[in-house]
Amino acid sequence: MPRREAAGEAGELIAKAHEAAQRIRTMGRADASHLAPIIAAVREETARNRFPAAALLAELTAEYAEARAAVAALATDASGHVRRRALRCLGHGSPVAFAVEILRAGLADADEGVRMKAASAAGYLGLAEVVRARAVANDSSDGPTLE
Questions:
Q1: pLDDT, tens digit, for every residue of 65-109?
Q2: 139 contact partners, CB below 8 Å, separation of at least 6
Q3: How far apart, in whole angstroms, are the C-alpha atoms of residue 106 and residue 80?
Q4: How many angstroms separate the most distant Cα atoms in the chain?
């Protein structure tokens, strides 16, 4: 596929994600069909799509349980890349208990990149105590460390 054509498709993907987020806000509800364009953009290979789409999804987690469920599903994906992207879908408006749940799973992940992203996201969200608690738990067990 020519580069210009791929860029056009990428632009369409993020445009559809923005439209979906606006529809969700207007209707006051989110379901799988409304979230699908946003999830597709989060999964997209280009940063041009996945970063803004993750920010959209992070905003929606503040208000919609379905958005939180979508992020939780991304956080358990078989691909470490997708699990890292799930961590980008946490924002300052995300419910703290939800963010802590996703961060804890990320900090315990087998993939080093996911663990690093979880630690970074925890710091960004002002939840560094989650990382400290995980480090203390690692110190008192034979499990993996954050090193």
A1: 999 999 999 999 999 999 999 999 999 999 999 999 999 999 999
A2: 145
A3: 10
A4: 54
9: left (phi over 0), alpha (psi -120 to 50) or beta: alpha
| Nearest alpha carbon to residue 82 among 42, 118, 46 | 42
**Number of residues that make up the chain:** 147
- Cα dihedral 22, 55, 129, 126, rounded to 10, equals -90
Write phi, then psi, for 131 (nearest 5 degrees).
-70, -45
Contacts of 119 (CB under 8 A, 6+ apart): 107, 131, 146
Tokens of 78: 């078989």
CA separation for the pair 43, 6 (Å, rounded): 15
Amino acid identity at 38: I
State how far the alpha carbon of 5 is from the alpha carbons of 2, 41, 84, in Å: 5, 17, 27
pLDDT of residue 30: 94
Cα–Cα distance for residue pair 12/6, rounded to 1 Å: 10
